[in-house]
Structures are given as C-alpha cells and as structure tokens.
Write a structure and sequence with these properties.
By secondary structure, the protein is α+β, with helices and mostly antiparallel strands. The chain has two domains: about 1-100, GMP Synthetase, Chain A, domain 3 (2-Layer Sandwich), CATH 3.30.300; about 110-240, Alpha-isopropylmalate synthase LeuA, regulatory domain (Double Stranded RNA Binding Domain, 2-Layer Sandwich). Helices cover about 35% and strands about 35% of the residues. Strands 1-2-3 form a three-stranded mixed sheet, covered by helices on one side. The chain has a three-stranded antiparallel sheet with strand order 4-5-6, covered by helices on one side. Helix 4 (about 160-175) packs parallel to helix 5 (about 225-240). The longest helix has 20 residues, at about 225-240. The radius of gyration is 34 Å and the shape is rod-shaped. It starts with about 25 loop residues before the first helix and ends with a helix.
Length: about 240
C-alpha cells in the first residue's frame, strides 16, 4: 500500500496527530479510526515500514462477524474514504468471545431462573369476612397457562391469617398439580437474625412417595404474602423434579 501523507502540507514535514502524544508521520491514526468505525470491529492496529508502507493490519472483531467479510469491508472503506489500496493478505482478523457486563449476566441468570419456576404467585386478597372477627383470604397461583384460585376464612389474628394464607396456597397447588397431592401441615412465624420469617411445612405426595417439605420467606410486605411464598419455596423444587 502506497500513499501520500494526508496530514502534511508538503512532502517534507510530517504532522503529529491531533490530541496524540506519539508521532504519526504517515497518518495511520486515521486509518485505524476508520477501521474501528466499521460494524463489528472492536480494535485495529496498523504496522508500517520505515518508508510508510503498510506491512500489517491487525483487527479484532466480535465472534458473530465473518473474517472474510470483515477484510472486504476494510478494503472497500479504505479505498472509498482515503483512496488507499491494501493487499487483503496483510489484514489479519482475530475474533473475541462475547464479553458482557456482569450486570447483564446477572440479569440473564435471574430471568432464566424465573422461567424455571414451576408455580408462580399471582395475587393475594385479604378482606373482612361477613362474620365479625374473621377475615377472608383469596390466593391465586399459576402453572404455565393454567391458574387456580382458593379462598379461606380464618380468625382475624396474625397466626390464623398466616395459616389460612398458607392453606389456600396449598389448595391451589393441589388443583394445579393433578398428578401430585399437596396438604398443609402447619405455618408459623419465627424470629431469627433480627428479622421475622414465615416457616411452613407441607406434605407432598407423588405416586407412592410422601415427603414433608419445608419452606421459609422473610416477612417484608405482609405476613400473609410471605406465607404463600413460603409454600412455593417448599414445593417448587419438589414439583420441578416430578415435572
């Protein structure tokens, strides 16, 4: 590749690139910038001889870029933009793996884990019952495109509301999973590490196998909601193993 220096007003005085701290008498910075502006190109380095002729062009691209197409793109861009003709044999292309920020990888892992959840919490309603001193709880869960809703009435105390919510969740699961049987053993509130949790125990029966399953959920929004989530915590892995 032969060319004149596009940065010099005369053939005798080379000009340093603007903003740079290294000499660039042959204007190779323009060439590198043009190459890196091409689609899929991550970096470029041009090696020149003492006479200013290009001896090597090293390029890194994304893994989804075809090396031959990248070389053709470089040849066309240099000719069209700078009037430079370069032998394609002097261009080497290295592909690098797709490197994404750790936040993107974490989001993908969370999303993938959410997709694998077998039963999903949809809604919880807590309202006063027609009978004084009692509350009515309605829980809705989903399994794929199928939904189930269960309603329980309990005494208006924290312990009974938690048990009623957990019992309604277990009933929903029993409806959603016809090949398995789910029944609530019990639910209670416990304190640990300066926080409050709901602990539930349910019986899971799949075929001839019966198993006591336990789950917990920290109380954040409400104890009733945590009771439902604790039931899902206890059963989702067990159900996934039988899906």
């Amino acid at each position: 590749m032969t060319h004149s220096n596009p940065h010099s007003s005369s053939g005798d005085q080379p000009v340093l690139p603007l903003g740079g701290d290294k000499p660039d008498p042959w204007g190779m910075k323009r060439v590198e910038n043009l190459i890196t502006s091409l689609v899929g190109v991550l970096s470029a380095r041009v090696v020149v001889t003492p006479l200013g002729e290009v001896s090597e062009i090293h390029v890194t691209t994304r893994a989804d870029q075809q090396p031959k197409q990248t070389v053709r793109n470089i040849e066309s861009a240099l000719m069209a933009q700078l009037g430079f003709k370069v032998d394609h044999r002097k261009i080497s292309v290295a592909q690098v793996a797709d490197v994404r920020p750790i936040e993107a990888l974490q989001d993908e892992a969370i999303s993938e884990r959410a997709k694998r959840r077998v039963v999903v919490f949809k809604n919880l309603e807590v309202r006063p019952s027609d009978k004084p001193g009692r509350v009515q709880l309605k829980v809705k869960l989903a399994f794929g495109e199928k939904e189930a809703e269960s309603q329980e009435v309990g005494t208006d105390t924290l312990r009974n509301r938690v048990e009623a919510a957990a019992r309604a969740a277990a009933t929903c699961l029993d409806d959603l999973l016809p090949d398995n049987s789910i029944a609530l053993e019990g639910a209670q509130i416990l304190e640990a590490f300066d926080r409050k949790f709901v602990l539930v125990a349910v019986h899971g029966l799949g075929g001839r196998e019966a198993q006591l399953l336990t789950g917990t959920c920290e109380i954040r929004e409400s104890a009733e909601r945590s009771a439902v989530l604790a039931v899902l915590d206890a059963t989702n892995r067990w159900v996934d193993a039988r899906r």
